[in-house]
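Researcher: Let's run the pair from yesterday's discussion. Sequence first, then tokens, for each.
Model: Starting with the first of the pair.
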Amino acid sequence: MLKNNFLKGTLQTLILRLLADRGQMYGYQIIKHLSTVTQQQILVKEAALYPALHKLEARGLLESEFREVSGRQRKYYRLSEKGKKVARQEGTELAQFTAAIQQLLRPS
């Protein structure tokens, strides 16, 4: 499992890219998907996810709506038009950063 300090700087970008790829998701879905796709290397707790979602929503990058599912209310998140642009931009920047880090970590 990756240390939490690596995740702090990338969580919002990961959420944006995930929603860009998957469309609409609710919080628990995001947590489970990140865990599954990364083979449990990225484990996000609710205490980290929901503040990140709220910040993205406050920045106008996410839109949300409540839906009733099996008698329970779920809040679904999706990218706004602004969020789609930012997701592409930040996703590209994160990929470039990751590539640069990989070059530094390669054995000589």
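Model: Moving on to the second of the pair.
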Amino acid sequence: MSKDIYYVYEYYRDGEVYYVGKGCKSRYRDAHTYVDIPDTSDIIFAGINMSENTAYLLEEHLTRKYGLKIDGTGILENKVHGGKSSQIPSFTGQHHTEKSKRKISEGNKGKVRTEAHKENYRQPKTKEHAENIRQARIGTKHSEQRKKNISIAMKKVVERKKQQGIHWKQKSPIEQGV
């Protein structure tokens, strides 16, 4: 099976993007925790047939380009910037060690979580929390290698779309049937 099975998608409402995500298979139309899924006519694929790493790079590039509502920098309803540098780690293919599992289990013994607790976990962070994170990240810079990887990923997407004879944000005939 090919490793280039990932894509990056954008949800649009009234002609404006409001969410950017990375996925494979049917992720673009699967339920999201806090974002409404639009009709397929309002979903644009920014890149298809990508490696997972390339998709992460493009997702992060786009979320930073559009900015997030939660931290006051933009228009996206995403809770965090995409990509592997996201504040929410991706655990795809990673597993806890037995030692870690025991430590987590011991830490949770005796804890009773009420429905109020559970609901609190589901809530997005406050604007104050988002601002604290933003302030902590001010001044951090991407490494030259990271910048190079983002540039390469974007060039691949644009080139692929040019070969298809369409603007890089438009859907290709193949994508319309995805």
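Researcher: Give me one sentence on the second I can quote.
Model: Residues 6-171 form one domain.
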